[in-house]
Design a protein that fits this description.
Blueprint: H1 2-22, H2 29-34, E1 47-48, E2 54-60, E3 67-73, E4 79-83, E5 101-104, E6 110-120, E7 123-133, E8 139-141, E9 151-156, E10 162-167, E11 170-175, E12 180-183, E13 192-194, H3 199-205, E14 211-213, E15 219-226, E16 232-237, E17 245-250, E18 260-267, E19 274-275, E20 285-292, E21 298-305, E22 310-317, E23 323-330, E24 343-344, E25 349-354, E26 361-366, E27 372-374, E28 384-389, E29 394-399, E30 408-413, E31 421-422, E32 431-436, E33 442-449, E34 452-460, E35 465-471, H4 474-482, E36 489-494, E37 499-505, E38 516-521, H5 539-547, E39 551-555, H6 566-570, H7 579-594, E40 598-608, H8 610-621, E41 628-632, H9 643-650, H10 657-663, E42 675-681, H11 690-701, E43 707-711, H12 724-739
Parallel strand pairs: 38-39, 38-40, 40-41, 41-42, 42-43
Antiparallel strand pairs: 1-2, 2-3, 3-4, 5-6, 6-7, 7-8, 9-10, 10-11, 11-12, 13-15, 14-15, 15-18, 16-17, 18-19, 20-21, 21-22, 22-23, 24-25, 25-26, 26-27, 28-29, 29-30, 30-31, 32-33, 33-34, 34-35, 36-37, 37-39
Helix pairs in contact: 7-8
Length: about 750
Amino acid sequence: MKRIFLLGVLVILFFTLPITAQKKASLSLEDIYKDRVYQQKSFGPVRWMTDNNGYSTLEPNEEVGGKDIVRYDAKNGKRTVVVSAAQLMPDGKEEPLEISNYNWSSDNNKLLIFTNTKKVWRYNTRGDYWVLDLDSGKLKQLGKTLPESSLMFAKFSPDASKVGYVSNLNIYVEDVEVDTIQQLTSDGGGNIINGTFDWVYEEELNCRDGFRWSPDGQNLAYWQSDTKGVGTFYMINNIDSIYSKPIPMPYPKVGTQLSAVKVGVIPVQGGNTKWFDIPGDPRNNYLARMDFIPGTDEVMIQQLNRRQNTNKVWIGDISSMTIENIITEKDEAFLDIHDDIRWLDNNRFFTWSSERDGWLHLYKISKDGKEIEPITKGSFDVINIDCIDTKGGYVYYIASPDNFTQRYLYRSRIDGKGKAERITPLSDSGQSAYQISENAKWGIQVFQNSTTPPRYSLISLPKHKEIRLLEDNSELRKKYDALALRSKEFIKVDIGDVVLDAWMLKPIDFDATKKYPLLFYVYGEPAGSTVQDNWSSRALYHQYMAQQGYVVVSVDNRGTKTPRGNKWRKSIYGQIGILASEDQSKAAKKILNTYDFLDPERVGIWGWSGGGQMTLNCMFRYPDIYKSGLAVSFVSDQRLYDATYQERYMGLLEDNAKGYHDGSPINFAQNLKGNLMIIHGTADDNVHYQSVEMLIDRLIKYNKLFSMMSYPMRSHSINERENTSYHLRETMEKFWKEKLQAGAR
């Protein structure tokens, strides 16, 4: 009996141990969205020090909690604690300040700490600010007499003796040495916004910080917005009290009145504001950019017309308040605003990004606008500028001439001579981003691709030698590799008029002799791109869907934000939702005809925001292709969206009424044949819940059945409050498995 028992134990061990050892990890929605098992690590935030020989970053302090600010010497890696967490402990407190962000004064002797932050629409731009004087060790809270967490955009004066900030839509200057606060504006509130912006400027023109120190520290130039006459949209909070609460927000929809915006100058010691008299109706033009010219009493102001196809550049003198138009940039379709201006040769020239030759390139323009010379040249786009090394004579920038899904560091001579030189090694195939020291000798590289999570390293330039690894997300990489997932396959889709970039994900146990359901992930609008060789935050969700037995595909149609030149990007002008859905439908047919393992009777499509709108357009316009669709946070009628975004790409409603009609999916809801689910947050300040209710009303009219899920008091991202992201993804999975049967046949 004993021998039989032992034999049985051996048999059990023989059969169970290998199975346990061979068991593979598998993805679950709970791991991704609830337990955050696959969260990536970042590094920083990094600040290059004034001497360009080292950088500062944040590291945990194990003794007192919080974080130290440490400096690393770039060359030898020497570590120095510049500010310990203990120094950031206010009097009477037992814990140091939690650092949300930090900035150095120009001489690195004072430190500005941003903490206790609150969200304003999309970003945490409101909070408390503290100043630490490294020489004296004194820690001081700014704006102590003002409401808690009400300060915005605090920044040092050029000599670091003062700090300017915004609170409750007014501008203040605080002397950090003698502890006095000067309120510069007092008319902020109600319709008047000083030193920051209304919703649409923040969202669509990337304007948040609305004031600038003069180089001598004696004046502030600032934007003032008057929202009087702008339509008010009301969101409703039904869940936080027994009575509903309306949430009003000025929001200019297509064709309606914009805020009146102007730029003024006020002395730091107080006094009256002087306003620049810029020609044109302030409610039908945008003042999209403003900044001082270094070392002068002049500001450069960029004025976009309402159609956003003309950008007038003005130089204004803050002493005389005179202005001069030096250049005017025009485009037959629309213009994008770029933040690539650097002043050269003692302010005689400045750099300027333009698509005037069909590609996005950097130019050198004289201050009077009469001399214009290209710095970068070739059949490629300059994606963004990382550093302009005036001493060395080079500009460093991101480009990808040969692969639109990737990103690499290049450099070109500022004098325009020679050819573009690739700096990123060929071995780093994927996407790289950089934070480069002002003298262009050092850089923090962030490298990633579709199978490699972000890898942070210190490099020396221009040879791009790696000096030390800062963070490689090795733990995440091991977890990912243990899943043994199939990698994205990057493919080309020839639809006749153009060849489109796409990627495909297949199930782990893929069998080419069988048929699989095809699930498209779409965006399709000018603000973004889905086909990129990077570590995407949505990659694991699509890997999960592939693991469930779907082939997942994403295609970038014409007009998406990819470095394929002016013609590509502007092709979508006046026909948002029309050309893109046509491209997507042609790509779907081409893919179905190319790959025999795809089942044409099981084709689904889903997208978020612009991708939600594209999903609806594809479902309603091409109902014979797409059998099921899931649209999240979508615009159903383009007239409901904000004027700045929609008019940039569609033109004015009065000029393109047919385009607005034909590009809006609500007008084709009667064509719905397949299974549709719509999902939206009721507190979406970006794409209002109104879009859902109007579409529902239209679907009811035509007796079209559908599924829906609303998330109360969730914004455009539908991630606020407990368990939201996990619930959302489980809801999506339930729909797909019920309406688009998974697995091979």
